[in-house]
Amino acid sequence: MSDKTKFLIVCNMKSGSTWLELMLGSLRDVAVDYEFKWRPEYAPSPEHMVIPDRNFRCGQALSTIQSDKPILGSKLVFDIYDTTEVEYEGLTDTIESDIRVIHLTRNYIELYLSATYHPGIKLNECAKHDSQSVLLRSMLEKNPNVDRINLETKLSGQVFVVPESFAPVLHVMLMNDLAAMRLSQRKHYMVVDYTQVREKFADIASFVGSRATQAEFDAILANPPTVKNPKMAPHQLIQNYDQLVDLANMYEEQKKQFLARLLELRKIHRLDPVTPSGP
User: What CATH number is given to the structural domain containing 42?
Assistant: First the structure.
């Protein structure tokens, strides 16, 4: 087993994990690759590191990243399909206690909009130079155009989203966040919201053990490996958008309550502080 420092970004899909992973991988002392998947029910892509059962060891898998850098990292991304809490049984066993966990959260309605209307990822030119990255190579070979354009919805007008079909998706998002919170009993655990990534990038880098300078942080933030999609006008896309927001806020409130309890428990046990989730 490598003695290098290791970390995992754990989150729902479309929470900004590729953005954060590749920015951390741009630091001089950090190498990143892959996307870990917990028992996917579909054929994995080349960049996917499949966790089949509780006997898998994420730390050993991270050690296969080809780099001389002292810090190795990746992301564990949960899909937002129908699932139940019991399906996560054994997941925490696969993540060794020395792996530093960044629990990346995102507002559920924003996550839904991103997954629905911005499914592609746009890469900056600076991202394509790392030929050793299985993640980047797979993204570019799979469909380079999709990764570099803002996908069009091809919708002629507003859609009406049935609330009864939206609620199960929100439930899965919350269950995924709760699965990530189960990792909070370890010493190195940090919660960061999507809206906080830029302002807290230096703190995140320090958390994973990087000794990069502020000048490096500024350069990466000024020219990140991924390009952010333009903001949408959701009221023009979804007829009952306000109704969906109200429903999503119910699940958001539950998530915030769980995170608040988690923070209190870590204070009691004198563990590293958790960064509160953003709005």
Answer: 3.40.50
